[in-house]
Amino acid sequence: MTMKSLQADTLYRTCTLNGLDAEFSSTKHLAPLNEIVGQERAQQAVEFAMSIKEKGYNIYAIGRNGLGKRTMVLRYLNRHDPNGDATPLYDWCYVANFEETRTPKLLKLKPGTGMPFKKDIEKLMLRLVKALPLAFDNEMYYSRSEQLKNQLAEKQQTALGNLTEQAKEQKVSLTLTTQGDYQLIAMNGEEPHTEESFIALPEKEQEKFETIITALEVKLRGIARQLTDWEEEFSDKIQKLNEEVALEVVSHFVKPLKKQYRGHTEIKDYLTAMQKDILENLDIFLEESEDQVALSYAALDKKMPRRYQVNVLVSQETERFPIVVEESPNYHAIFGYIENATYKGTVFTDFSLIRSGSLHRANGGVLLMDAVKVLERPYVWDGLKRALRSRKLNLSSLEREVTLSGTISLEPEPIPLDVKIILFGDYQTYQLLVHYDPDFSELFRVTADFEDEMERTDESELQYARFISSIVHDNGMLHCDRKAIARIIEYSSRQAEDQNKLSLHSADIANLLRETNYTARAANANMIRVAHVEQALLRQEKRVSRLQDQMLHTFRNGTTLIDTQGDVIGQINGLSVVSTSDHRFGLPNRITATTSWGEGEVMDIERSVKLGGRIHSKGVMILTAYLSSLFGKSARIPLTTHLTFEQSYGGVDGDSASMAELCAIISAFSGCPINQSIAITGSMNQFGQAQPIGGVNEKIEGYFDVCTIKGRHNNQGVIIPLSNAHNLMLRKDILTAVEKGDFHIWAISHVSEAISLLTGKDAGDWQDDNYPPESVLGIAQNKLNAMRK
């Protein structure tokens, strides 16, 4: 039986860029793509979620790694304003709460106000640090304070002088001891009475002195209380004087600030409270308490009192909504934290040590994170859900929550949260979240499902060319000429394993362009040409093909047995794909079938020794069922068949060898030899119809390479399912060989066609309760019937 093989022009779809006008000779003349190439579904999902302001419309972007999900979403967000009417943005600052220091006060300011306000306060403090001491270091202040001191001293002296005179008149002396206490002593003339002289006095005179001294002591205690009141009054007057002096200085500097920020109520209220606090804590500026002043100035950035700093947590440089990508989503990085500082062995914290997280910076905009990284970090997922539900950002100490310790910490005012979260992850992670976390579906109501590939049409090729142009422009690469663009599109189609599809695995395209750009620059080229693309692809393959070269060498030195010429009964060349982490390639495998007297069983040796996977075992069962339908219509097949992959030691899975295995069994049954020049790949169903398989390009190329090693001749070729014909994007050397008639590829729809091609005989159709006697199936049927007799 003769069957036409596929023509060379059907084995590779060349890109002609019909959708691109002739004058566009390179990416230099091609506008970069603003949209997400081939991801209309995902783009619509992102647009929908961004346009809804209600709680819960966050996005989970599904797609395998390398599709460029993040790059595509960022490109869309940067070139479009999904904020529409614009969510109002604010600068967020923490300042001291002078009434309750444990709960720092939050200031919500207009965008761009926070940093200027912080600098204005710093300037104010620097001026006050210099101006306040000067205000208390002048003759006017000294004169007023000295006057108050003199008034106090005069009152003290008058009161004590009167008491001294009264005591003197009654022969009693008022003296001041070395310990600073006042003492009343009876006088003996001009000298104080000693203990002996006092005892020597008459008893009545002693009693008189005691009565006088007791009365004077009562008066002295009254004067002492009065002195204390005068001193307190003096302190109040001094304090009032200090406040009056300080108020003149402080108000002189604060008044312009209040005028400058008259439209900001929160700032004006804070300035008022700050002014009052400065007047109550003048010692910080006057350096009256050295230790206290040292601690208050123990700032990490500025030489100014800590309590008057402005901690700008978030500063909006522009009014465009923020887009934040969090690469390391740990708890502190997302939710912020409160630092501790150490000064002379003392550990302390305050509002100025509050640090922002990515949620603070993304507030009013979008925060993008990797789902797996979020789930891997302790407490992050629960904290994120809590923030999204409450729509508030509470800065609580993670250490306090985890350790349940009673450590004193700050409790800053919570910040209102209005943010869209976009999580990037694969489908498995998405399924786990949906299944195990009931909150997930409520908080992430929008799924952006990214495609792996897109239809290949003239229009999509033009889009892809613009996508290539965007990568070139964004990375400052050399521009690609028209043929280089076409070759990259053909490579994308090969990656998609379909002539009619283009791969959307943008990481592969970006990597190829980087390597091609390097190759072109190394050759001192002014533009990327098709030769540079080919060279970069060869280098890519060279780097990852060590295992392939080793395994091909086993065919070269005869370690792996294979026949690529001649005819053998019960032996066929199947094709398989070997995959590593970054490369996959095809190789032929010798499959053999032997028969012996039995009851129609097909013994799968791979399965028996547990080297065969479940899919492979299913394929063997299917071909067994088809075999029974061919030869067991009226009686049991009197043979047992043993089927194996020769020299296979690492396990076999997949059903792509089931057609090859059936052909080997038919050959063993009939005694018709199989042409070893032809390899075959393909799955089959219970009716013998050929079913598509994966890796068809690699399998054909692998067999072609082995044929080249073992010796080429023009009868060699590969049989594939017809449904795989559109997957062919073969190497140029194979296309050339096919074009010359040195290599053949046959596409079949039924296993009977493979039997005919492999044996050179008609497979045979069931007619009148029999197969034609000259056909392969007829020969096998006759042998089986003879055995039955």
TrEMBL record:
List the InterPro entries.
AAA_32, Lon-like_helical, Lon_proteolytic, Lon_Prtase, LonB_AAA-LID, P-loop_NTPase, Ribosomal_Su5_D2-typ_SF, Ribsml_uS5_D2-typ_fold_subgr
Annotated catalysed reactions: Hydrolysis of proteins in presence of ATP
Record domain Lon proteolytic: where: 566-761
Q: What is its EC number?
A: 3.4.21.53
Return the protein name.
endopeptidase La
Alphabetically list the UniProt keywords: Hydrolase, Protease, Serine protease
Q: Which organism is it from?
A: Photobacterium arenosum
Which positions are catalytic residues?
656, 699
Q: Which PROSITE patterns does this chain map to? A: LON_PROTEOLYTIC (PS51786)
- The EC category is hydrolase
* Family to which the UniProt record says this protein belongs: Belongs to the peptidase S16 family.
